[in-house]
Every structure is written in C-alpha cells, then in structure tokens.
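Input sequence (395 aa), recorded before submission:
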Amino acid sequence: MDYPSQLRDRRNEVLAAASLPQDHAGFLERRYACMLARAGIRINGARPWDLRVHDPRFFRRLLWGGTLGLGDSYVEGWWDAARLDSFFERLIRARIDHGFFNLPRLLGDAAAALRNAQDRMRARRVGEVHYDLSNRFYAAMLDARMVYTCGYWREAKTLDAAQEAKLELVCEKIGLERGMRVLDVGCGWGSFARYAAEHYGAAVVGITISREQAALAREHCRGLPVEIREQDYRDVRERFDRVVSLGMFEHVGRKNYRTYFETARRCLADDGLFLLHTIGLNEHGSGIDPWVTRHIFPNSEVPTLARVVAAIDRLFVVEDLHNFGSDYAPTLLSWHANFERHWPAFAAEFPSSFERLWKYYLLMFAGVFRGRGLHLWQFVLAPPHRPGAYRRPLR
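Predicted structure, token format:
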C-alpha cells in the first residue's frame, strides 16, 4: 500500500471513530480486534501471544502513534503479552504491521529523504546514547567476547559458541592470512579485532565513535597488533588488505551510503575483500522505526537491498550474499535471558522504565526476525577488477 492511500484510509478511519464519541475506545478496540484476529491474536485472550490491555487509552495511542505509540504504551504498562516475541512474530507473518497507520514512521521517512541525520555531528549521538550506556551492563548481557551482533547458530548450542562461530566465519570468508592489515569499521568492544589478531596473526585497526567502547576495546586487545581509534569512518585514508564492518551500517543512513562505500573502496587494496554484516529489509520501504530511533538507536536506519546495490554501483562487485537472519532470534533471546538474570544488579543505575523498555527492544526484534520481517546479510564485496575467482568457504 502506498503512503497516500494509507493516509486516505486512516483519515476515513479517524472520521468514523469521531462519529462515535460515546464509544470511541470500543470502536477502535473492535477495529484492532478484527485486524489482530488475522494473525491469530486476541485482545485480552489467555494465550501467551495474546495482547492484554490494561488501559483503554492504548487504542487511541495506537491510532495516532503507530509503532511509536505501541512501544511507548508498553513501556508505560498500558498493555502486555506473556510472550512478546511470539506476539510480534505473528504480527509480522500475517503482515498486520502493514495495516496499521504509522504517522511517525511516515514523517521519519520523509525527514530521512530531506536531511542527513547521520552527518559527522549527529552520527556521534548513537554512541553517546546507546553504546556508552555502561560497559558493565553490556558485559553482563552479551557473550564472553562482548559481540553485539548476530551469532551464527548452525552448529552452536550456546551464545558464546555462536558468536565465536560468526567471527570464524567472517575470517574464512575474507580469506584472512597472517600479516594482513585489516580495517574494522565499527569495532565495538574489539571482539573481531582480538579474534583476528589472536587466531590469524592479522594486524587490525578498529574504529568506533563510542568513547566507552574504545576504552574497553583497548584493554581487551592489549599486547596484540591491534590499534583502536575513536574515529569517524569518513576520516580513514589508509590502505588495508581487508575491510570488515559488523553491525555498524545500520547507523550510516541513506544520505551517506555512497560516501561509506567510497571510503571502503579507497581504503581497500585492489586485490582485497570487504565483508559487510548488516540488518536489512528485503522489500522496498522505510527502514526507520520511530520507537527504535527515539529510544534505542538514535538516527538509525535499516538499509534496503535496493539502496545497498545502488550505492555500490561501479565501486564493488558482490561476490557473495549470505542471509542468516533466522539466527538473530536465538541471539536476541539469549541476550534477553542474560538481561533478566542480571537486571537486579543494575536496577538502581537506570530509570524505572528501563527494564520494560529494554525487554520490549530485545523481544520485539526477536519476534520480527523470526517472522522474517528483518534479515541479516553478510556481503562479500570486491573491487571490480580484482584478479582471481572468489569461493565462499563451505562450513
């Protein structure tokens, strides 16, 4: 459904609701009950994925606020679902999310088309708000290596094993060898840099815009041929044998995609390889969720496949594209289990709303990935005239 028809349909819905002022909440509840029934979800039902409403203002909030209203009203305790991940999985599989009016998303998408929300100044905000939150907190929630991206669960049984398998997969895909110089764009707490240096003898330069990440990454990589910098990707002008970027591209923004890939190409040797690991949308549409950008990842935008392909035109050849988005659900559920287990130790450090906000963030994404609303892509990109043939290693 295109945006003008969405606006027209929801205008009619609002007018219909306005004509029933004595039963506005009841009208909206019946409206949403019909929509949710297509996903097998009941309002105030007893099943784990059913939506239980505690405050009738929820329906008006949903009407005007879309996904922003849905998330905010959950954090405020207006509704619950025993299994949030299953609730969202059902919504996505039935494509019910396409039927909800989402004015904040429409406005966010329009703004993204007009302004650069990830320029040099604004790009640092996600580091300050999210990644600088607390190294202790992230150490409790993540695996032993502190990898904050999707694990690879093909043979893994634990979060630690899944994250190590993902790091090994990346090294194999880029044909990493001893002595190679690697640029890690968005290096987080240094998990890949440390793994590549320890297991492959690579020399790694990791860059991040997070002060707290950079400080801890330097500790993790002490004594290894690893340099951690607090630096914007646009400022790197050296040459490397390989470039990797794991879970950072979601913070680049459509206005900067071409600059991002031009920077990667400038930094990559002519016979090099670039591995890009990113969440993605498999269809044309908005990659901006207003609740996520307001509360979790400021100025973030999930890339679409079409925008990635357009941005690499004449810069790179796609040697390989691997989708293992289904592995994100067990990763997120593992993070949530760690969060729940360790939350009592952190409750005094955060606002009272933080527990519900973080629970919503982790379980909502788990459901969306399991419902195949989002994907996890690993691209292997090469300069157009790179000699030789590329073969993905078989694992």
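Checked by second reader. Strands lie at 52-53, 79-80, 181-185, 203-208, 226-230, 240-246, 268-280, 317-323, 375-382.
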